[in-house]
Design goal:
Elements lengths: L4 H7 L2 H6 L3 H5 L9 H10 L2 H14 L3 H13 L3 H13 L3 H11 L2
C-alpha cells in the first residue's frame, strides 16, 4: 500500500483500515504474530472486524488468553464478520454458555 502514493494518502484514514479485507490473515491467523504487525495494529485500532477475528484466534488458541480472545471474537461479531459468528458460537457452547451460543447461531440463519 505504501508503494503507491494514492494508497498511502488514503491509508491515513481509519475508514480504510476499518474496511480493509484481511482474508490472507483470516485464513492463516498465526502469520500476523510475526508479520503484518503494524497493519494489524492499525486495523484493530480502526475496529476492523476481520482483525479482531484474527486477534481473537491468536489470543484464545495460541496465547491461551481466553478472556482477551473472547473479547476480540465478540467484537468481530459486532462488526458482522460471518466467520466470527461461527467460532464465537462454538466457543460459547464449549464453555457452557448455551444461551449465548444459541443466540449467535441464530444470527447465522442456518
Amino acid at each position: 500500500m505504501t508503494s503507491i502514493p494514492v494508497m498511502t494518502k488514503a491509508a491515513i484514514h481509519d475508514r480504510v483500515y476499518k474496511n480493509m479485507q484481511l482474508s490472507i490473515l483470516t485464513e492463516h491467523p498465526l502469520t500476523s504474530l510475526t508479520s503484518y504487525t503494524d497493519l494489524m495494529s492499525k486495523c484493530l485500532q480502526a475496529g476492523n472486524p476481520e482483525a479482531h477475528y484474527v486477534k481473537g484466534i491468536q489470543e484464545y488458541i495460541h496465547h491461551k488468553n481466553t478472556v482477551e480472545g473472547i473479547y476480540h471474537l465478540h467484537l468481530a461479531t459486532k462488526g458482522s464478520y460471518q466467520n466470527a459468528f461461527y467460532l464465537y458460537g462454538i466457543v460459547m457452547l464449549c464453555r457452557g454458555e448455551m444461551e449465548i451460543g444459541k443466540n449467535i447461531f441464530e444470527k447465522l440463519e442456518w
